[in-house]
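Researcher: Good morning. I'm working through a list of sequences from a screen, and I'd like to move beyond sequence-only analysis. For each chain I'm collecting a predicted structure so we can compare shapes side by side. This is the next one on the list. No need for commentary yet; just the structure.
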Amino acid sequence: MKKRFSLIAVVAVLIAATFIVGCNGGEETGGTLQFYANGEDFVRQGFVSKDGWSISFDHVYVVLDDVAAYQTDPPYDPHEGSDIEAEVMVGLEGLHTVDLAEGDEDALPIRLGDVQAGVGHYNAVSWKMAKAPAGPAEGYSLVIMGTATKDGESIDFTINVEDEYGYACGEYVGDERKGIVQDGATADVEMTFHFDHIFGDAGTPLDDSLNVGAVGFEPFSVIAQDGELNENMAGLQEKLSLEAYEALVTMLPTLGHVGEGHCHCE
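Model: Good morning. Structure tokens for this chain:
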């Protein structure tokens, strides 16, 4: 009787172990999550500002720190302005200086790095734009370099932003869902930057809120000298009109998105 009971116990243990392995999908415990930064076609292909300047970009350096993705339940709402609360978080180490204008007009978003991540939906992302200690953006969190042309006039411009911003964002909004990690598979999340928020977009109605709030390029052209503009925020505060500078200060924090999804910025 005792031997029969022992045999039954062993069989029960084996069945339980098989059930556990089956539920866990074998030895897989997660996948890979990739982090991308995207300046969109506005940066890669150029565009026309709300006031008629054709803008092309040579370099758009953005400096990213504390890049992380989260699984949140309930989903994080950036409009509430609160911190992201999550039990699962993965992040990239170090500071990353990215040139969003890198490559040709058909270039893909810039891949910052990969992390191993547990299974689940990473439906929130956060990062900081921080001052670069060295490199092409040294001393700045954002450097925008390009050329603007209108009616035969051409201006080479460099706009250096020393201010730092922290973004907390919800789920990516676009043609596909992002951040869903499955066993043994690769998923991605994206930090998106909308530079039409600064210059406006001639392809959008002028009375649209985007263009109403945007600076445009005309105010920058006014302070250019001999076809060149190279200023940081302190210089722009001194030289731009009060209205234009305040518009710039207001719009810079709105650059960060997740696709078309919004972010809370501090």
